[in-house]
Automatic annotation (TrEMBL):
GO terms for MF: adenyl-nucleotide exchange factor activity; protein homodimerization activity; protein-folding chaperone binding; unfolded protein binding
Annotated InterPro entries: GrpE, GrpE_CC, GrpE_head
GO biological process: protein folding
Subunit structure: Homodimer.
Pfam families, per database record: GrpE
Ranges of biased composition (kind: Polar residues): 1-17
Keyword hit for Chaperone: yes
Parts forming coiled coils: 27-68
Function text: Participates actively in the response to hyperosmotic and heat shock by preventing the aggregation of stress-denatured proteins, in association with DnaK and GrpE. It is the nucleotide exchange factor for DnaK and may function as a thermosensor. Unfolded proteins bind initially to DnaJ; upon interaction with the DnaJ-bound protein, DnaK hydrolyzes its bound ATP, resulting in the formation of a stable complex. GrpE releases ADP from DnaK; ATP binding to DnaK triggers the release of the substrate protein, thus completing the reaction cycle.
PROSITE patterns in the cross-refs: GRPE
Name used for this protein in its record: Protein GrpE
Family recorded in the similarity comment: Belongs to the GrpE family.
Chief site of localization: cytoplasm
Length: 190
């Protein structure tokens, strides 16, 4: 047979075209599912990142709250005695005044002087155990954070801004000022 006479089989061509069309439809359906799954995966990853960020923030906030509460408890323990210690300061002042007015030369008062000195020392040692310390700035440079200047006097004997006398000693409780020392301060002689 000649080329023109050869029979053509159209029955096999049409099913092949239908198959290709079905494959294309099937591929586009799979691609749509894959695209949908990729979108869901991206959305889930974004949600996971948000949740992790939120968890880290909550954890940091909880740590800050715990640290703040711990500091508050520590401060409460350290400074719980502040009012009580402040109320005891006049007792120390009175014992020091008593020692200042007693005639130390009088033999009859030697026992009293010794008793008041021991009482004062014992009292200061006891309050020191609880963090109360005396500020006695005699001869030190004036510090406005710890001292209250009651008078300023010219002096050629000491450097300017030096505490020349202490009217009333100051006190601090665990580093916090309870009462400033009342002092006299020197200034340059004119």
């Amino acid at each position: 047979m000649t080329e023109q006479q050869q029979p053509t089989d159209h029955s096999t061509e049409q099913p092949q075209a239908a198959n290709e069309h079905a494959d294309t439809v099937e591929l586009s359906g799979e691609q749509a599912i894959i695209a949908k799954l990729e979108d869901e995966l991206a959305s889930t990853k974004a949600q996971l990142a948000e949740q992790q960020d939120l968890m880290l923030r909550i954890k940091a906030e909880a740590e800050n709250i715990r640290r703040r509460a711990s500091m508050d408890v520590e401060k409460a323990h350290k400074f719980a005695l502040e009012k009580f210690a402040g109320d005891l300061l006049p007792v120390v002042d009175n014992l020091e005044r008593a020692l200042g007015f007693i005639n130390r030369e009088d033999e009859a008062l030697k026992g009293v002087v010794e008793g008041v000195e021991l009482t004062l020392k014992s009292f200061l040692d006891t309050v020191a155990k609880f963090g109360v310390n005396q500020i006695d700035p005699q001869g030190q440079p004036f510090n406005p954070e710890l001292h209250q200047a009651m008078s300023i006097q010219p002096s050629a004997d000491v450097a300017p801004n030096t505490v020349t006398f202490v009217m009333q000693k100051g006190y601090e409780l665990n580093g916090r000022l309870l009462r400033p020392a009342m002092v006299g301060v020197s200034k340059a002689a004119e």
